[in-house]
Amino acid sequence: MFYTDNKLQFPVRVETPDPQFARALQQAIGGVEGEIRVAMQYFFQACGARGNPKFRDLLMNTAAEELGHIEMLATAVALNLEGAPVSIKEEIAADPVSSAILGGINMKNLLSAGLSAMPVDSDGVPFNMSHIYASGNIAADMTANVAAESTGRVLATRLYNLTKDPGMKEMLAYMIARDTMHQNQWLAALEELGGPTNVFPIPNSFPQEQENQDFSYAFLGFQADGSDPVAGRWSTGKSLDGKGQYTSRPMRPLGDEPVLGPAKPNSGAQTEQL
Amino acid sequence: MFYTDNKLQFPVRVETPDPQFARALQQAIGGVEGEIRVAMQYFFQACGARGNPKFRDLLMNTAAEELGHIEMLATAVALNLEGAPVSIKEEIAADPVSSAILGGINMKNLLSAGLSAMPVDSDGVPFNMSHIYASGNIAADMTANVAAESTGRVLATRLYNLTKDPGMKEMLAYMIARDTMHQNQWLAALEELGGPTNVFPIPNSFPQEQENQDFSYAFLGFQADGSDPVAGRWSTGKSLDGKGQYTSRPMRPLGDEPVLGPAKPNSGAQTEQL
Amino acid sequence: MFYTDNKLQFPVRVETPDPQFARALQQAIGGVEGEIRVAMQYFFQACGARGNPKFRDLLMNTAAEELGHIEMLATAVALNLEGAPVSIKEEIAADPVSSAILGGINMKNLLSAGLSAMPVDSDGVPFNMSHIYASGNIAADMTANVAAESTGRVLATRLYNLTKDPGMKEMLAYMIARDTMHQNQWLAALEELGGPTNVFPIPNSFPQEQENQDFSYAFLGFQADGSDPVAGRWSTGKSLDGKGQYTSRPMRPLGDEPVLGPAKPNSGAQTEQL
Amino acid sequence: MFYTDNKLQFPVRVETPDPQFARALQQAIGGVEGEIRVAMQYFFQACGARGNPKFRDLLMNTAAEELGHIEMLATAVALNLEGAPVSIKEEIAADPVSSAILGGINMKNLLSAGLSAMPVDSDGVPFNMSHIYASGNIAADMTANVAAESTGRVLATRLYNLTKDPGMKEMLAYMIARDTMHQNQWLAALEELGGPTNVFPIPNSFPQEQENQDFSYAFLGFQADGSDPVAGRWSTGKSLDGKGQYTSRPMRPLGDEPVLGPAKPNSGAQTEQL
Amino acid sequence: MFYTDNKLQFPVRVETPDPQFARALQQAIGGVEGEIRVAMQYFFQACGARGNPKFRDLLMNTAAEELGHIEMLATAVALNLEGAPVSIKEEIAADPVSSAILGGINMKNLLSAGLSAMPVDSDGVPFNMSHIYASGNIAADMTANVAAESTGRVLATRLYNLTKDPGMKEMLAYMIARDTMHQNQWLAALEELGGPTNVFPIPNSFPQEQENQDFSYAFLGFQADGSDPVAGRWSTGKSLDGKGQYTSRPMRPLGDEPVLGPAKPNSGAQTEQL
Amino acid sequence: MFYTDNKLQFPVRVETPDPQFARALQQAIGGVEGEIRVAMQYFFQACGARGNPKFRDLLMNTAAEELGHIEMLATAVALNLEGAPVSIKEEIAADPVSSAILGGINMKNLLSAGLSAMPVDSDGVPFNMSHIYASGNIAADMTANVAAESTGRVLATRLYNLTKDPGMKEMLAYMIARDTMHQNQWLAALEELGGPTNVFPIPNSFPQEQENQDFSYAFLGFQADGSDPVAGRWSTGKSLDGKGQYTSRPMRPLGDEPVLGPAKPNSGAQTEQL
């Protein structure tokens, strides 16, 4: 169950409204690296968490935090959009700066939302909830969370570099710090699950003797000339999961050309396929 | 540039066609954990790889491998669909097994594709390329790849448990092994980039003194009663990135209730909002 | 800012797990009439609310409630999915009931989520955030909310009729009651805004003398034989917004056939179009 | 069955082509508040209308009208796009106005459609037919239609304010008037169905004694400090559906923390979850 | 401008309602080969038709026909859904036929639409208007229309084979015939445009001397072993557009490995990439 | 199985980076006329090809080619994006050219991908794999391929006209030539299948005596005034498939107004509908 107090987690102020920056901020709301994604991802992972209940609590707690981040960003978008024109006056047509502003925003922020935030990315594409990764495997979920916070912090630093507004920089400096913690938080959860050598390969409950172990630690090459693939830590030495030795070799096809045979009668094929 | 030899990377055979299993296999083609996703993700990461060129080669090489996996799975789907009915005969209406088969497949595999594979998931939802994570940050990409292969292997083991066809088990045992390697491969790439304490927080090129460091390693609580959040590795000790000490505390709002003020004239609001 | 207490708003219990009903419940999570939709819609409307701040508070308060409803439903889905098979045994192939169960669930609930809930509808289609209507016009938002709760309650009663599990009936009886209130709540908000004759036509800030008033209260007919369109309350009497008199008449084209003229050179058209 | 006469319902003329305004107009074609949405929504509601057949006729008649509105807008988009450049000449690179024009249009209107309209919104996002609300409940459909026409008219007035072209203003003045009527038309249909006290709660066929009536007219508070939620018409007095009395109180969790228990063997979970 | 007469273009009757067939019919409404697609495609092509106005008329006329086909199919879906259960009774749980029916339908047809048609495909995926191909090139549009009617007729014959209801067979026999005509109609339009040797390559307005003519009629091989690609009509003889001679040869890379160089500072990359 | 050699099929060079042109090029990667579409379409058609295996080889060979085209374009996008700003400096706000550049790019190319290519179109909309047409009917597939290459070449010529960079013109001149060949290649495949009179109507395996032959070659008119539809090659003469004679006549409804009757009890309808 959720509660609110109508206050912002961290102050949001904009000294000089910048509609183009509002557009950029939309990526942090409705982009695949954005806050809706992490809020809902942690929420659904929590709802499906089986086993030790502390992971449910950890996840739901941080879901609550991320909801507050969407709220902050939505406020920031609305404040930045105050600078956008809502009606055309004679002067604007001849003024390249105003014209560029109108051309440079997400039109929907104006036309659909009346200068407010929307759950869309910086090009106006709505967020799609297929991006909520909640696998039922707690370790896979944690790796997905590390990945989400990594792209999330990359985005936040790009936004930080795109603005010179002190209020916006302050807000983003807070959010970047939270992304630092969240990367570390999910890495810590993987530690609690035993660290890399216990966690991997995910899922660790599948008996590895049932997989085709000739291929479990081989870096295979798919170079057209049959040469060895590029060497690196992935080619030699003990595997990171601690359960094998990396090798490297070119791959050659083990199967033949697949033949499906003729099409069934009444299956809508051409006569030539029957 | 890409080449093909029309052969399968690994043999694909189906002893007893099972249209419902064809539906399940579609998840491994067009699901968000599927092979289109990884093939295209590695491909686009390779195309955008800046810095040391060996990561481009590593990524493009494995993209080529994954393309062959789609091909294997598509063949497996078509072979399993051979068991689906394409026309209704008198007997079928009264036959619950046949009826369930027709109800249990992705209808589009029959109606749109004529008993062949499609780039859709196990519920018939087409793959959307927004799932291709290619961030321009090589470490963020590698964490995304570890995550992708983790959910990928979870899916493959679920499929393995859902079939008793020896051919299908063999194919999946190969694919599970490849997922084992790919998890290890991307973990190895992170090692090459310096391992956790160098890699994190991602991006490591952002000066941490510019983030709000009061919040960089604090596990914040959002419990309604103001209590401390659930304790764990994330609450105490050295942070996994090696750059801080975890702490834990309840969060309280630092901002006020946001007030946007009245709406602009001519902005499509109600008069009461102006 | 949001908080949680990890408890459920209302008890969720399932006496007899029913995987097909889990599929149906998914509609109430990720369907367009579902709880993600209302939670996020009220949230974004709150974030963009300009004018009297009490609407912001009203909306955000109810957003918090709806988040708890998603949590309840996600729990219900997971509990119902306990009845689904995760591995194929010899007996199942010959057993039409088990086979129908597997065919009748959203495959992704099993394959992607490991028997947990997902933000998808009852056919496995992910929720798309374009369904969040937050227009910047408070009255338009309230009508959208009445509509959302109307389809929401229709859905909840359909679900109620599809289950005989006492726990599920109890949970849905609670949710149906909340939908009753929410319909009434948004209707009350429209009353606060002055009721129909003040609120409509939305937006009431646009001067009606600028619209083409010959057509503002005319029910136009588009019957092929030029006859009058079907009569009703919409054809005669005072208009519901109190500002006009309904009339009714067949429509005839006032414009000519549109002619775009030739295509531009270099615009990719056929030579015949230039 | 449908017919056409190749003429426009209302004249469409553009004195000064404005490619950026073409982009804005796309919202009225393929936006969620646009004409495709209402045309198809009324069409599908008509096709599924059960009970009194006059609602089918009412809906299908207005579906025909809206198809003509798409045609008008598509013509307007094409005429406005006449002003867009299709080839780059030396001068353009140095000319900020031309450059802004190219940057400010939907690129697809040029690249995919050759300076014609598309079924996309003002940011180039294709319309998705999930926005067609046709619930099988005639009253829910009518509330959805009121909502659609409310956001539709808000959009049309925003477009009206964004142009100074007399032809475009004339066309939009006609469309705004039609939206006025359509809001009133669907409100009238709700009157025919008995008005608010008969219509609500939707569906009115569900016996209210089966819902949990302790919660049917209570405005519940989800404030973190346990305080009462914001007061208003929704807190006291007779409910708008005439069947209850509004009350208001803070909500506290009635359920416990949900516990799903351990994961099933073979379900792809980590060993720690079993 | 469009008109309706509320009658069906061709009689629609269902002797024995079959909810699973209703699901299959949905593909012909909201599938990518379905009637919404062609109706809207011809409509938008008409709206953007430049040059000889007879193509506008041809397209809009057939758009009107296709709207009537959606209406027929939507009626057929609703009539077939009459056979679906809307409430669970004791007996059903133990009855595999009823259970399979419920599992085998699109759940949304019941839960969202109350046993009516929806603009979704046979797996419940909503139609997306990105499938409306309207290129601004009349010949490209006509080839897209031939393709659309080809997959459309394939689908219709598959549906014909999946039903034994005489009413449904009659309706589909009509629709298959219309698809025959529409394939021929768009082929005839290509004849009017001059036939293959005038029409191709599309667009014929681009001067072929500006393309790299070494590659204009060469069938290139991408076989891993450098062998010639499979021979056929595409390897030798006069090209179908009458403007070249087919040749065939293996392709070898003409470019080097692409090198993007280091990432920009402040671009969110890892330090190692700078 | 697929291989790579890390080299480009054709050289890609950019003399003057142009971020707006990068945006335009994205259409050729992730647009519905783009290279992902054809690569994946040929791939899936190959995987589902039944009957003569040479079509599988033909398709898979060209799929390999198209993968290399995506690679070329992705490289071109990254090179053009080198010109985009990644941080805001004082001067930029006052500089309309820089501001227009930032407003005119796909924001995601910067924010999500760090100045690299993405699988999205020129307005930032991700490619959706529902556009992969692979019908199981080889002739329908070939017509879809002709259509894909027709819109593909139209797009490529538009891009050619939008740039004056010699490197980009060279690359596009190569791609336009390949589209010329591919149009001819698929036309040749239709010739191998017997040419128009054998191929059409697709599918040619459906016995035409089962369709309603009164309507197989009739161009039907849907003009509101009952007049004959526009005349052309489609109205008279032998049909292009060689199996009928075109005729033309107005259509009149053969069915009545559809009546669905009352709604079922418990189906969520209003009482008035029961």
UniProtKB/TrEMBL annotation, chains A, B, C, D, E, F:
Keyword Ligase among UniProt keywords: no
The keyword Translocase appears for this protein: no
Cofactor note: Binds 2 manganese ions per subunit.
Names of the cofactor(s): Mn(2+); Ca(2+)
GO molecular function term, any single one: metal ion binding
Binding site for Ca(2+): D57
Residues that coordinate or bind Mn(2+) 1: E35, H69, E149, H182
UniProt cross-references to InterPro entries, sorted A to Z: Ferritin-like, Ferritin-like_SF, Mn_catalase, Mn_catalase_dom
Region (Disordered): 230-274
Residues reported in the UniProt entry to bind Mn(2+) 2: E66
Keywords per UniProt: Calcium, Manganese, Metal-binding
Superkingdom, taxonomy of origin: Bacteria
Similarity comment: Belongs to the manganese catalase family.
Name of the protein this chain belongs to: Catalase
Organism: Allorhizobium taibaishanense
